[in-house]
Design goal:
- With about 210 residues, this protein is mainly alpha-helical.
- It has one domain.
- It is about 70% helix and about 0% strand.
- Helix 2 packs across helix 5, helix 3 crosses helix 5 and helix 7 runs antiparallel to helix 8.
Length: about 210
Amino acid sequence: MKMDRKKLRKIVNIFLVIAVACSWLSIFVSASGALMKNGINSLKYFTVLSNLFEGAASIVWLVSSGKNGGRASILAERLKYIAAAAVGLTCAVVLTFLGPLYGYPAMFAGGSLFMHLLTPLIAIAEIIFLSDVEFTRKDNRLVMLSPLIYGVFYLGNNLINGIGEWPDTNDWYLFLAWGYPVGILIFAVICVVTWLLGLMMRKLHRPGKV
């Protein structure tokens, strides 16, 4: 069964690479739904960045998949774990915050269906059911790096360049609508939610069950 699981995981990662590439290409060419900026400007969204991270992590895993137990293989597993938490955060925020705010049809329009829902769910399921690595508490803490780095960029950009006015605002997620203290609190909560997603994957992890 081990070889069958590995083949299945290769198929999953190839699918993730294609899904991420195609969904971003569709948004790059023509913005849709809640992602209202196309081209390079689409890179301002955590949704796009986290999905591209997942795609890159999938490529790294595919390249290193033949190196069983090697350092490159372990690094690839950790990248996949961190990336799964990042896209999982995207899905969680859409389902609980952005969906009610903007409407779920907008959240799942076009390439956003994959970026906001399908890719995150597949990435999380891969870690839970197909990964052979036992992730540690340190790995769990590392998943917070993605939202932390993005939060520093997001808040820093607003401090330096100003919030602006809609639709050309630098506060495109409206996290600062209630002021910077609330915005900082939101990002702190987001980091905790990402940690909880990592913890969930660790606790539900079932290596060798598929």
